[in-house]
Amino acid sequence: MDTTLSKLxxxxxxxxxxxxxxxxxxxxxxxxxxxxxxxxxxWKAAEAGLASYDLPEEYGGGxxxxxxxxxxxxxxxxxxxGPIAGAFGGGSFFAGPIVALGTGEQKARWLPPLCGPRPxxxxxxxxxxxxxxxxxxxxxxxxxVEGGYVLDGQKTWISNAPIADLYxxxxxxxxxxxxxxITSFVVEKGxxxxxxxxxxxxxxxxCYPAGELFFKDCFVADDRRIGDEGQGFxxxxxxxxxxxxxxxxxxxxxxxxALEVAIEYAKExxxxxxxxxxxxxxxxxxxxxxxxxxxxxxxxxxxxxxxxAGEPFTVEASMAKLAASEAAWYTTWAAVQTLGSNGxxxxxxxxxxxxxxxxxxIYEGTSDIQRLVIARSMFGS
Length: 381
Ligand SMILES: Cc1cc2nc3c(=O)[nH]c(=O)nc-3n(C[C@H](O)[C@H](O)[C@H](O)COP(=O)(O)OP(=O)(O)OC[C@H]3O[C@@H](n4cnc5c(N)ncnc54)[C@H](O)[C@@H]3O)c2cc1C
Description:
Butyryl-CoA Dehydrogenase, subunit A, domain 2; alpha+beta; 50% helix; Butyryl-CoA Dehydrogenase, subunit A, domain 3; Butyryl-Coa Dehydrogenase, subunit A, domain 1; 11 helices; four-stranded mixed β-sheet; four-stranded antiparallel β-sheet; 10 strands; 3 domains; 381 residues; 15% strand; binds flavin-adenine dinucleotide
């Protein structure tokens, strides 16, 4: 346990750990197999205060403002199951830019339900069919009309798209100006002109759906605009700095889970008359996995501490996400390898964790994009 955390925060981390053990680990395989949304767990997490621990206290959230504390909580929950924790963490993902840029009225409207016992499912929608990494190239148009805007366009690969109640949608008020025109709007389920599209089949993270959204002459009133016109891109990039650090912590939790299973297996399994950990090919592979995870944890906590101190941390956030997602990918690969055929079996968890953890290197900026952010800081480009 991190002794730099307050006593209260350490209790919260222990609470997350106990919840992960009790409520996430035992049901994770079921939700992966059935591809059902984990409603029961979503509600239990809400009741346990773990779906909104980082939302402001005045709106009913847990009031955790320290990114370091959030990292510890995220690591424990992802140790239980990364995708399920991601599913009930969707509310905070949607709410982050509203907390930063929304008016008092907007916060009072959308935050309290997210902190309640039956929180709405929420989504944040930037990616479009022609652009993911190059988010500033988005084309969804927000045309100014009397009293609001009319949205036209399409989104894809949006987590929770088919089932969400609330969507934070990024569109441009000035096509062709890239980031300058990008503005965010809250769209609610059932708004005329808005339709969720199909769910996209995927490799892992199968307990929550990801899919398309369509906007055709979809009117949103002025009070649905979050921040000023043109503030959306800046706002979401600042938010990604924070969320990339917690995503790094997710990767660490998923990787740590795989390493634990691999170590136990290597102590029990025998080949050629020895426990397999006695072969350096096996133990060194797991040493490298531990080294990668522990190094990435130092980077992750360093980025979080900078954020907590109010220092710039964009580059450190990218380093943390890059290092942690790659270390977790290596670790789950090494775990599958260590378990041999059983690693490939759906009766053991590591094949599922390998499928799940791949996503960490893709969303919220692929590893190439994290390298691009770091390179720009090195070369001033
Ligand atoms: C399960 C899942 C859930 C998701 N959830 C959400 C969500 O909730 N909201 C949302 O808005 N989006 C979401 N996404 C989308 C995700 O963030 C994007 O898919 C991701 O940013 C990559 O974009 P892309 O798929 O368009 O890849 P592309 O941008 O087309 O990239 C393709 C390849 O080219 C590389 N590449 C691109 N540009 C460069 C460059 N300049 N230098 C070097 N290499 C480059 C990339 O690294 C990648 O390897 C989700 C995706 C998945 C799979």
